[in-house]
Amino acid sequence: MIDLPFFLVASLVLAVGLFAVGLFGLMLRRGILFQIIALEIMLTGPALAFVAAGAHHGDPGGQGMFVFVLVLAASEVALGLALYLRLGRLADVADSDSVRTLRH
Amino acid sequence: MSWAGLFAVWAGSLALVAMALAVTRPNVVHALIWVVAGLLSLAAGFFALGAGFAGAVQILIYAGAIIAVFVFVVMTIDSGPEAIARERGWLGTGWKLPLALVVLVLAPAVFGLAATAGPGAPTPVSPVALGATLFGPWAVAVEAASAMLIAALLGARHLARRERAP
User: What's the rounded mean pLDDT across residues B119-136?
Assistant: First the structure.
């Protein structure tokens, strides 16, 4: 068995847990706003994994990838919330089940 | 085993609990507050891992700017008692299948228990080294990320624009 430091193993397990919590929220919720929040939570899992791996190796690449995850989260939130507002204004829907055919 | 590593794991566990509470709250404002709590504990964990830049950016941009955008959107929707009751009704049904799928996702994490905990402490990485990486060998990736941000900005502006009167 590979001899890994405790903090790295625990951080990777926590990262999987954060991703799983976000996935659970994404599938549990019907409100689009809650689903976007759950997507944000899903993105924090890989971010923690990158930072922990970077701290293990002493490599700045881990934090560099964290910056890219942050950029991805920011653009996803901007587009997702704009689509949400547009959908609410055009069709007055707030849950994703009623727009699954993309018609109303 | 290092104290900084232990603190990072503790903060990460707090973040996990806060996020689990966030996805199960019927009130969207409560959910956002729990998300902020989780992001701030994660930032504390990043500081303990020696990633000071990541922790600062997590507080300033993630818990600051991105959540502020959420708050602006929450202000435009109605979250009265009937909306909360509707969310509560949706929460009560249909949580079994998501939970089963999430257990499948979590299953590989069990292998973490098999890893032997060796010695080792997190190595701090200075923002200077991070900047030298981002604007040295990773410059093309940074440019691509900035192009994606511009595209997201223009797309959000286009989508959120009000129709002109005909």
Answer: 87
Distance (Å) from the alpha carbon of A104 to chain B's nearest alpha carbon: 19
The rounded distance, in Å, linking the Cα atoms of B94 and B97 is 7
CA B6, chain centre distance (Å): 21
CB spacing of A6 vs B32 below 8 angstroms: no
* Each residue's pLDDT tens digit, B94-120: 778 888 888 888 888 777 667 767 777
Looking at the complex, does the CB of residue B85 fall below 8 Å from at least one CB of chain A?
no
Tell me the pLDDT tens digit for each residue of B132-148: 999 999 999 999 999 99
Of the candidates B134, B152, B60, the residue with the CA atom closest to the CA atom of residue A65: B134
Identify the CA nearest to A65 among candidates A41, A40, A38, A43: A43
Task: Provide the whole-model pTM.
Answer: 0.90
For residue B54, give the nearest of A38, A51, A76 by CB distance.
A51
> Is residue B85 classed as helix, strand or coil in its secondary structure?
helix
Q: Output the CATH code of domain A6-92.
A: 1.10.287.3510
